Structures are given as structure tokens and as C-alpha cells.
Amino acid sequence: MNFLKYLLGDEKIRNRVVDGRTTGFTLHLRYPNYRGMYLGYITDIRVDVDGVPHNGDAIAVTFKSGTFTLAEMRSCGFTRWNYGEAGEVFVRLPGGLADGPHRIEAGILSRGYLGTHGEYVGGFRDIVVEKGAEK
Amino acid sequence: MAKLGVSLYSYQFECFRGILSLEDCLAHAASIGARGIEMVPEQTLTDLEYETIDEGLVARWKDWMSRYGLVPTNMNLYDDFDVYPNRTQTDDERYARFKHGVLLAKAMGFTSVRGSSEMPARLLERCLRIAECHGIVVSVEIHAPFSLKSSYTQEWFELIDRTGTAYAGIHPDCGIFSKGPAACRIDQAVRRGAKRAVIDYLQAAYAEASAKRQAEATVLDLGDYRDVVAYGMAQPFEKARAMGGTALEEGLFRRLTYDDPSWLVEYKRYIKHFHGKFYDMMPDGKGGFHDPSVDVEGAMSGLRRAGYQGWISSEYEGAGAYRDLACPVDGPDSRGLVEKHQKLMAGALAG
Q: What's domain A2-134's architecture?
């Protein structure tokens, strides 16, 4: 992955609990270019937890305009990952992030002249999870 | 005398970080004496505001224009023909996107829109008609690696002449008067492993190639911009590889062009707007500053000699050079840089 400043947000990385079950976790990511990107250009989002990648069907992103899986993004020629908008990326991981320290890397792969030119572009953070939420 | 404005593109670092709001950007531009405002709507507006031509946004925008004494100038539209992974958009879809952009521009008070260099002539001609109906100028951006003397630009001139419309023209980007890569971009390449000796060699080769290009003044058929190699640089790039250079050094020069500023006089009848692209502002020069990588003084002199009366927007382009993790500073001071560039342009236009 190619890491750039300010793409992986400072927002807390949290486990998501639905009906008492931890289904995965969320982080916030921004798109790395000078204008908003139409979602049809997004090819993949990959989140590595301690070197183990999660991508494709394991990912959904929530913007102000709604929640999209990567498959749903492909037909979006009007909805954008707005400039500077922190999309909330959900990573499906039953049981969520285990308590303790983790290296989280997150990147976007996209097409087009404002795309990421064949590499994932994003950021990384070293975090400590205590009782399901980053400390 | 040309009129000075600012492209909101210049404040992209602060906007991305949430340091400046849209109103903050407008207030800053007004505070340094700029009067024209240019916009990349897909940067400044949300998708919802853009697609719905949001009434609240339009009302706020008009209020700000009036409160700060500003005038909307050019709105930069794009042609994202490849947005869907499984097919290219049809001409009808691309035209519909353009038409929507024209309606947005008109609602917000802009007087020209950017025609994309992605658009083939058959589509541009169609776009011209709908823009003209709304009293909006279609201005094609002439941006490096294209040149005033490249076949793409010349074909657009022919189309303008054939239709006879007054609502079509160009806005040259000052980056077509490039003296070499900007220091901030060179520094970033060096942080990534580029070799200064290779860059120095390519800089000398580029100066030589540029002088030859200006002397020859021929129209170049550059084809697709993605594949362009800067004029006269194919052999220097080979030699740079032999010196141990990589894509890092080559990438700094690959899409540069240095048009003769007198070509602005030659094609003055087509110039509807101007992008004052710039990077580093260094002390000394007209108005107290100069850009070592862009011939701002030459371009302003060309516009003055052309009798150009339209808008010039400061367009700070260096933000991307501060985004790598190894960059020692958080980001550029876009406001300070824009203020210096306005002084440079005013000084250079005064002669």
C-alpha cells in the first residue's frame, strides 16, 4: 500500500455490535484526490489487520448519501465519495477486533485518471483495543 | 487590463482538512483584493448539492458573492466517460452531464464552463449549442502536456471558427509555460528516492528542448495525453535511465511543455479565461515574488501584449507535493501563497 497523510481518519476504530453479536469493526477513510470521486470508479477497499487482508465482499462504506457495498458502487455514476468526506468503512469480521494492540492498514483501489494507478492508497494506524473500542 | 481572481482549487489542502469552510475561502480571496472566483464543483460542492442544484446553496452563494464583492467566473466541468467499469458512457449520457453542469453554473452565476479535453469534437459541438443557449461560454482548458500549438487545440480553434460562435474559446493553464518541475515536487521525488544528479541532467536537457520547441513553433500531434512524452525528452529519458534514473525522475518532466508566451498574442481571439497555475513563491521578481518553475512573468507579459481583458485565477497546484508521510511539514500555507501570487501577477501585468 501507498500511505498518504490524512486519509485514514483520527476517528476511533470501533467494533460494531448488532443484536449482541460483534459483526466487524469500522474506521474512517477519505478519498485521495482533488475532487470527489464517483463511486463507479472505486474498484476495491482493503483493510489489513495485523497483515491479514479484508476486502471485496467484506467491505461496505457509509457516506452522508447512504451505505454502499463495493458491488453497489460499480453502478454509481452520480453519487460521489465527496472531497474530504470521511466515509465510514465497515469491515465484516465476526467477533471483531480482539482486545489488545493491532496494526490497521486501510487503502482504496480505484480506476480512472484520478484513480490510484494500480496500487492501494490509504493510511495506517497502530491501535490498542480495550473492551471492543480503541483506546 | 486583465482582472484577478482565485480558483478555490488553490485552498484544497485546507478544505480537505476542514481548516477552511467555503465562506472562509471566499473571505480570504476578497481580503487580498481578488474579485473573481473560480470553482471545481466536484471539489467544493457535495454530490447532492451538485445533482439537485440545491436552492439553499445557490442562495447562500449569491449572498456571499454580494457580501464579499466577488464575481463567479469559470466553473470547471469534467467528462468522466469511464465512470462505469463495464462500459463507456454514450454521447447522450456525456452530453446530459455537461448540460446539467451548464445549468448549475448558470444558477450560481458563472459565465463560463470548462470544456474537457476528453471530449471529441462531435460532442463539444453539441455542448457548445446548449451552453450558448444559456449564455455560457465553453472554454477548453489547454493544460500540459497539450500546447497552444498541438493538434487538439488547433482542431478546437477550427471548430470555433466554423461555428462562428462567440461562446467558445480556451483557457490556457499557466503550466504550459513550464520552466521545469517545481521545487516542492522535486523535494517529494527525492524523499521517495529520486537522484538529484539525474534531475539536474534532465533539467538541462529540458531547457535545451524547450528553446528548440519555441524556435521551431510547429504544431505537434500529441495523441492521447496519457502517452505523451515531453518534446525532445525521449533521448534524455533514455540517458537518465543509463545514469541510474527511474520513473521518479522521468515523471517530473514527462508531461511538461514550455510554450512561447508570444503564442498568447497569436491566439488571443480565442482566450476567454486563464488559469494562473503556480507552485512555489520565492522572493524577488515582479510584485516581490517569482515562481522558479512557471514562467508567470512571461505569460502575464503575453496576456498584456494580447490586450487580454478577462479573468486570471490564481491556481495553486502544489498541495499534492506535501501528502507523503515523509514530508516534514503538515501541508502548504495556501492562503499565503495565493496572496503572494496575486502580487506577482499584478506586478507582471503592470509591466
A: Sandwich (2.60)
